[in-house]
Protein backbone atom coordinates (compact mmCIF):
# COMPACT_ATOMS: atom_id res chain seq x y z
CA UNK A 1 0.00 0.00 0.00
CA UNK A 2 1.32 3.44 -0.93
CA UNK A 3 1.61 6.21 1.64
CA UNK A 4 1.73 9.97 1.26
CA UNK A 5 2.79 13.00 3.29
CA UNK A 6 0.38 15.77 2.25
CA UNK A 7 0.41 19.24 3.76
CA UNK A 8 -1.77 22.35 3.57
CA UNK A 9 -0.22 25.63 4.70
CA UNK A 10 -1.24 29.27 4.95
CA UNK A 11 1.69 31.57 5.60
CA UNK A 12 3.78 34.48 4.41
CA UNK A 13 6.56 34.50 1.84
CA UNK A 14 9.94 34.88 3.52
CA UNK A 15 11.59 36.09 0.32
CA UNK A 16 10.68 36.94 -3.25
CA UNK A 17 10.25 33.82 -5.41
CA UNK A 18 13.29 32.60 -7.33
CA UNK A 19 12.67 31.56 -10.93
CA UNK A 20 14.98 28.81 -12.16
CA UNK A 21 15.38 26.24 -14.90
CA UNK A 22 16.85 22.76 -14.62
CA UNK A 23 19.65 21.81 -17.07
CA UNK A 24 16.96 20.05 -19.15
CA UNK A 25 14.93 23.29 -19.32
CA UNK A 26 12.15 22.54 -16.80
CA UNK A 27 10.87 25.68 -15.06
CA UNK A 28 10.67 25.76 -11.27
CA UNK A 29 9.84 28.51 -8.80
CA UNK A 30 11.13 28.40 -5.23
CA UNK A 31 10.30 30.48 -2.17
CA UNK A 32 10.35 30.21 1.61
CA UNK A 33 7.12 30.24 3.59
CA UNK A 34 6.70 31.13 7.27
CA UNK A 35 3.80 29.89 9.38
CA UNK A 36 3.16 31.20 12.90
CA UNK A 37 1.55 29.58 15.92
CA UNK A 38 0.55 31.72 18.90
CA UNK A 39 -0.59 30.50 22.32
CA UNK A 40 -0.64 31.38 25.99
CA UNK A 41 1.56 29.17 28.16
CA UNK A 42 0.73 27.86 31.66
CA UNK A 43 2.27 31.00 33.21
CA UNK A 44 -0.05 33.25 31.18
CA UNK A 45 2.73 34.47 28.87
CA UNK A 46 2.07 34.88 25.17
CA UNK A 47 4.24 32.56 23.09
CA UNK A 48 4.88 32.43 19.34
CA UNK A 49 6.66 29.89 17.17
CA UNK A 50 7.53 30.34 13.50
CA UNK A 51 8.06 27.32 11.26
CA UNK A 52 9.80 27.74 7.91
CA UNK A 53 9.16 25.70 4.77
CA UNK A 54 10.99 25.66 1.42
CA UNK A 55 8.37 25.52 -1.35
CA UNK A 56 9.00 24.48 -4.96
CA UNK A 57 6.57 24.45 -7.89
CA UNK A 58 7.31 22.92 -11.30
CA UNK A 59 6.27 23.30 -14.92
CA UNK A 60 2.83 24.70 -15.64
CA UNK A 61 2.09 25.56 -12.01
CA UNK A 62 5.35 27.49 -11.86
CA UNK A 63 4.32 29.48 -14.96
CA UNK A 64 1.38 30.98 -13.02
CA UNK A 65 3.70 31.99 -10.20
CA UNK A 66 6.11 33.62 -12.65
CA UNK A 67 3.22 35.75 -13.95
CA UNK A 68 2.20 36.78 -10.42
CA UNK A 69 5.83 37.57 -9.55
CA UNK A 70 6.38 39.65 -12.69
CA UNK A 71 3.15 41.58 -12.04
CA UNK A 72 4.31 42.35 -8.47
CA UNK A 73 1.57 40.33 -6.75
CA UNK A 74 3.81 37.62 -5.30
CA UNK A 75 6.52 39.23 -3.17
CA UNK A 76 8.13 38.88 0.25
CA UNK A 77 5.53 39.16 3.01
CA UNK A 78 2.49 38.23 0.89
CA UNK A 79 0.15 35.62 2.33
CA UNK A 80 -0.33 32.42 0.31
CA UNK A 81 -2.12 29.09 0.59
CA UNK A 82 0.07 26.10 -0.39
CA UNK A 83 -0.94 22.46 -0.78
CA UNK A 84 1.52 19.72 -1.68
CA UNK A 85 3.67 16.84 -0.55
CA UNK A 86 5.98 17.25 2.44
CA UNK A 87 9.54 15.98 2.65
CA UNK A 88 12.27 16.48 5.21
CA UNK A 89 15.88 16.97 4.16
CA UNK A 90 18.88 16.55 6.44
CA UNK A 91 21.98 18.70 5.89
CA UNK A 92 24.98 20.25 7.65
CA UNK A 93 25.01 24.02 8.20
CA UNK A 94 28.13 26.19 7.77
CA UNK A 95 29.18 25.30 11.34
CA UNK A 96 28.85 21.56 10.61
CA UNK A 97 25.74 21.31 12.78
CA UNK A 98 23.03 18.89 11.63
CA UNK A 99 19.86 20.63 10.42
CA UNK A 100 16.51 19.55 9.03
CA UNK A 101 14.69 21.37 6.27
CA UNK A 102 10.94 21.08 5.63
CA UNK A 103 10.42 21.02 1.85
CA UNK A 104 7.08 21.18 0.05
CA UNK A 105 6.62 20.12 -3.55
CA UNK A 106 3.57 22.30 -4.23
CA UNK A 107 0.55 21.02 -6.13
CA UNK A 108 -1.40 24.24 -5.60
CA UNK A 109 -0.43 27.79 -4.64
CA UNK A 110 -3.04 30.51 -4.09
CA UNK A 111 -2.36 34.17 -3.43
CA UNK A 112 -4.54 35.36 -0.55
CA UNK A 113 -5.66 38.84 0.37
CA UNK A 114 -6.43 41.72 -1.98
CA UNK A 115 -7.98 41.09 -5.36
CA UNK A 116 -6.90 42.98 -8.49
CA UNK A 117 -10.09 45.08 -8.36
CA UNK A 118 -8.94 46.48 -4.99
CA UNK A 119 -11.48 44.60 -2.87
CA UNK A 120 -10.24 42.38 -0.06
CA UNK A 121 -10.92 38.72 0.53
CA UNK A 122 -10.78 35.60 -1.55
CA UNK A 123 -7.77 34.02 -3.07
CA UNK A 124 -6.29 33.66 -6.53
CA UNK A 125 -5.04 30.39 -7.98
CA UNK A 126 -1.68 30.29 -9.70
CA UNK A 127 -0.85 27.68 -12.29
CA UNK A 128 -3.90 25.43 -12.24
CA UNK A 129 -5.45 22.85 -9.99
CA UNK A 130 -4.09 19.57 -8.69
CA UNK A 131 -4.94 17.82 -11.95
CA UNK A 132 -2.75 20.27 -13.86
CA UNK A 133 -5.42 20.51 -16.54
CA UNK A 134 -6.87 23.88 -15.59
CA UNK A 135 -4.86 27.08 -15.81
CA UNK A 136 -6.85 29.70 -13.98
CA UNK A 137 -4.21 32.35 -14.61
CA UNK A 138 -3.20 35.09 -12.21
CA UNK A 139 -6.33 37.24 -12.54
CA UNK A 140 -9.04 34.72 -11.61
CA UNK A 141 -10.99 34.84 -8.36
CA UNK A 142 -12.72 32.11 -6.42
CA UNK A 143 -15.67 33.50 -4.49
CA UNK A 144 -16.80 30.46 -2.46
CA UNK A 145 -13.94 29.34 -0.25
CA UNK A 146 -14.87 26.18 1.71
CA UNK A 147 -13.14 27.27 4.92
* Total beta strand runs: 7
Radius of gyration, in Å, reads 17 Å
Round the mean pLDDT to the nearest integer and report it.
Answer: 81
How many structural domains in the coordinates? Answer: 1
Strand fraction: over 45%
- Give the termini separation: 31 Å
Annotation field: number of helices? 1
User: How is the CATH topology named?
Assistant: OB fold (Dihydrolipoamide Acetyltransferase, E2P)
CATH class: Mainly Beta
Low-pLDDT ranges: 117-124, 127-147
Q: Judging by the overall fold, what is the CATH architecture?
A: Beta Barrel
| Structural class category | mainly beta
Q: How are strands sequenced across the largest beta sheet?
A: 1-3-4-6-5
Which series of helices and strands comes N to C? EEEEHEEE
Q: What overall geometry do the principal axes of the alpha carbons give?
A: globular
Could you walk me through the main structural features you see in this protein, from its secondary elements to its overall organization?
- The chain has 147 residues and is mainly beta.
- It has a single domain (6-36, 47-118), classed as OB fold (Dihydrolipoamide Acetyltransferase, E2P) (Beta Barrel), CATH 2.40.50.
- Helices cover 8% and strands 49% of the residues.
- It contains one helix and seven strands.
- The chain has one helix at 59-70, and strands at residues 6-13, 18-21, 27-40, 46-58, 79-92, 98-112, 123-126.
- Strands 1-3-4-6-5 form a five-stranded mixed β-barrel.
- β2 (18-21) and β3 (27-40) form a beta hairpin.
- The longest helix has 12 residues, at 59-70.
- The chain is globular, with a radius of gyration of 17 Å.
- The two termini are 31 Å apart.
- Residues 117-124 and 127-147 have low confidence and may be disordered.
Amino acid sequence: MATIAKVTLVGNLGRDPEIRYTPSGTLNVQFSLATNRRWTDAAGQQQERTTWFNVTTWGRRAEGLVQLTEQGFLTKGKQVFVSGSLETREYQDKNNQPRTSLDVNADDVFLMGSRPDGESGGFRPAGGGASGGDDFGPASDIEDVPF
